[in-house]
From TrEMBL:
It comes from Psychroserpens luteus. The chain holds residues 199 to 422 of 422 of the full protein. CTP binds at residues 104, 114, 148, 162, 166. In the N-terminal section; belongs to the HFCD (homo-oligomeric flavin containing Cys decarboxylase) superfamily. Catalyzes two steps in the biosynthesis of coenzyme A. In the first step cysteine is conjugated to 4'-phosphopantothenate to form 4-phosphopantothenoylcysteine, in the latter compound is decarboxylated to form 4'-phosphopantotheine. Catalyzes two sequential steps in the biosynthesis of coenzyme A. In the first step cysteine is conjugated to 4'-phosphopantothenate to form 4-phosphopantothenoylcysteine. In the second step the latter compound is decarboxylated to form 4'-phosphopantotheine. This is Coenzyme A biosynthesis bifunctional protein CoaBC. The keyword Zinc-finger does not apply. Its cofactor is FMN; Mg(2+). Residues 15-224 are annotated as: Phosphopantothenate--cysteine ligase. It catalyses: (R)-4'-phosphopantothenate + L-cysteine + CTP = N-[(R)-4-phosphopantothenoyl]-L-cysteine + CMP + diphosphate + H(+); N-[(R)-4-phosphopantothenoyl]-L-cysteine + H(+) = (R)-4'-phosphopantetheine + CO2. Residues 10-220 form the DNA/pantothenate metabolism flavoprotein C-terminal domain. Its EC number is 4.1.1.36, 6.3.2.5. One of its GO terms (molecular function) is phosphopantothenoylcysteine decarboxylase activity.
């Protein structure tokens, strides 16, 4: 359906996408994580593949599946594993879209054995994970780099801050204020903010449609 003119705009292009949460181990049976379903990232992968792109989808723990000859799914667990996978592929891609809900912190020490309950309170010390998106922004060359921003307040200001500090070409602001948007559901309400600070607000839509809108925005900005 995207090939009515007999040409796919992203044919021959390589696209890296991250999806889902990351799980940060506390001990062999427990982790720190979040409720990201991975749906948005998997939809972006399908939308890109349907435009002819060769997609590498790096996904944290997620029940989402996809079968498409243009999509290679790499399953990872932790932020560090996602970081390593992204850095393996980034050099050769044309577009990178980081939609994963990466854990910002991980337990500083991981116990070798299951931790037994003892006292009435228990404290876990956390340390920051690496910011994958920021690390790619710092080394990007030809790559068109897209990030997401999940905000509940001062949304535009915070999203623009991330666009600049992570050296992005485009950021997708995900408004958790709006009913029906965000984690778990099948709809999202997004605003695109470009490097030249153009803002394009979209209605509440299915994640499938949001993914298609995002790919069209990227095509526009890259003149593909
Ligand atoms: N991101 C990442 N690696 C991290 C944290 C975030 O690649 N360790 C990426 C996300 O995939 C997303 C973007 O950075 O594309 C913004 O994530 P978000 O959680 O909204 O922002 P943070 O920079 O983590 O800041 P905060 O959570 O404090 O708002
Ligand atoms: Ca974060």
């Amino acid at each position: 359906e995207n090939d009515v003119l007999g040409k796919l705009p992203l044919r021959g292009k390589k696209v890296l996408i991250t999806a889902g949460p990351t799980y940060e181990a506390i001990d062999p049976v427990r982790f720190v994580g979040n409720h990201s379903s991975g749906k948005m990232g998997f939809e972006i992968a399908k939308a890109a593949a349907n435009l002819g792109a060769e997609v590498t989808l790096v996904s944290g723990p997620s029940h989402q599946t996809v079968t498409h000859s243009f999509i290679n799914v790499i399953r990872v667990t932790s932020a560090q594993e996602m970081y390593d996978a992204c850095h393996n592929y980034f050099e050769n891609v044309d577009i990178a879209i980081l939609s994963a809900a990466v854990a910002d912190y991980r337990p500083k020490n991981v116990a070798d054995q299951k931790i037994k309950k003892k006292e009435s309170t228990f404290t876990i010390e956390l340390e920051k994970t690496k910011d994958i998106l920021k690390s790619l922004g710092a080394i990007k060359k030809q790559q068109f780099l897209v990030g997401f921003a999940l905000e509940t307040n001062n949304e535009l200001e915070f999203a623009k801050g991330k666009l600049v500090s992570k050296n992005l070409d485009l950021i997708v602001l995900n408004s958790l204020n709006d009913k029906g948007a965000g984690f778990g559901g099948s709809t999202n309400k997004v605003t695109f903010i470009t490097a030249s600070h153009d803002t394009i607000a979209h209605e509440l839509k299915s994640k499938t449609e949001v993914a298609q809108d995002l790919m069209q925005q990227i095509l526009k900005q890259t003149h593909a």
